[in-house]
Structure formats: structure tokens, C-alpha cells
From TrEMBL:
Gene for this chain: scpB
Gene3D superfamilies cross-referenced by the UniProt entry: Winged helix-like DNA-binding domain superfamily/Winged helix DNA-binding domain
Ranges for region Disordered: 171-191
Keyword Cytoplasm among UniProt keywords: yes
Name the record gives this protein: Segregation and condensation protein B
Originating species: Anaerolinea thermophila (strain DSM 14523 / JCM 11388 / NBRC 100420 / UNI-1)
Keywords of the record: Cell cycle, Cell division, Chromosome partition, Cytoplasm
């Protein structure tokens, strides 16, 4: 069978192998890593991943999660309650309003510095940022090319898992007009 025939075959022999590798992978992996392990072209792996994604989107208990060019097999968001109960995670700490606010800023503006987060929130975010770093929901992704070279923050794959997102593309659209209206209202209130 030619490579082209294998690519077009919906029940390709590579599909269960890609799924198995994702299952045993200790964390997110790239298509290239999967292709190297299976000794097949990256295009075949990417097609298999798309086929798996379509299968999982039909109400299955698993999901593919994409972050920074990597993919990971996770439980589907709709199974979270049962999985938490089974694993005894029901008492997981909920995020405070400040943490949610900071996460939203980072998710939509990443990479972003702490001073920029503080400017948007209007308060110091040191404590909240440390908490989010400890929970693994955000991470340091580099340094800004600015005086003092402040740290840049971005979200992690744990962030996506926590909110049941497959990728950052699944975030609701950012409504900048609403933010501008809110800023204008705040200015009026301050006068």
C-alpha cells in the first residue's frame, strides 16, 4: 500500500498507534516526536491527530488538547465531575476572583509582564501571580526587551485542562469595545 493510500484511509493502522503513544506520553508532545517514534511522515501523524480529534468531539470521554505546537490526550471536559469524584479531587480549591481576573488578562494578552497585568487590574498582582505559578496555571515564557528585562508570563497546558479547553483558540472572543466602555465609565467615576 502506498503512503498516499494510507493517508486517505480513515481506519489507518497508524491511528491506534498515535492514540497509544499519546496515552503513554508523560506530557504534551509534538507531531514530529510522534512521527519519529512511528517512523512515518509528520503529515500522516497530523492527519491521524485530526481524525482522533473528530472522533473525540463526538461525545467521547477523551479529548485532544493543543498548546504551543504540542498535543496531549486528556479527559473530556464534560467528564470532569465524575473524574474528580473518582480520584478524590472534589475538594480542589476554587480560584478567587483576583486569580480569575489575572488568568483572563494573561490568557488574552500573553506574553505579558507583571507590570502590564498590574496596570490593567489597577492593583499589585504579585501574590495572585505567585499562586497561579504554584498551581501550574501560568508560567514564565521569557523576558521582555525593556529596561530591567521583566519576566513575560503565559498560560500552560494545565490552564487549558482546568478550563476544559482544547487550545487557546477555544477562548471566547475578546470584546475590546466592552473594555473601552468600562475604562470610560471608570474615568467618569473618578472625576
Amino acid at each position: 500500500m502506498s503512503e498516499k493510500q494510507t493517508l486517505n484511509n480513515p481506519v489507518s493502522p497508524i491511528l491506534p498507534m498515535v492514540e497509544a503513544l499519546l496515552f503513554v506520553a508523560p506530557g504534551p508532545v509534538t507531531s514530529t516526536q510522534l512521527a519519529q517514534a512511528l517512523e512515518v511522515p509528520v503529515e500522516m501523524v497530523e492527519e491521524a491527530l485530526q481524525a482522533l480529534q473528530q472522533t473525540y468531539q463526538q461525545g467521547r470521554g477523551l479529548s485532544l488538547q493543543w498548546h504551543s505546537g504540542r498535543v496531549q490526550l486528556t479527559t473530556a471536559p464534560h467528564t470532569a465531575e465524575a473524574v474528580e469524584r473518582f480520584l478524590g479531587l472534589e475538594a480542589t480549591a476554587r480560584l478567587s476572583r483576583a486569580a480569575l481576573e489575572t488568568l483572563a488578562i494573561i490568557a488574552y494578552r500573553q506574553p505579558i509582564t507583571r507590570p502590564a497585568i498590574d496596570a490593567i487590574r489597577g492593583v499589585n498582582s504579585d501574590g495572585v501571580l505567585k499562586s497561579l505559578l504554584n498551581k501550574g496555571l501560568v508560567e514564565e515564557v521569557g523576558r521582555a526587551e525593556a529596561p530591567g528585562r521583566p519576566i513575560l508570563y503565559g498560560t500552560t497546558s494545565e490552564f487549558l485542562q482546568h478550563f476544559g479547553l482544547s487550545s487557546l483558540k477555544d477562548l471566547p472572543p475578546y470584546d475590546q469595545q466592552e473594555e473601552e466602555t468600562s475604562k470610560q465609565e471608570n474615568l467618569i467615576l473618578k472625576d
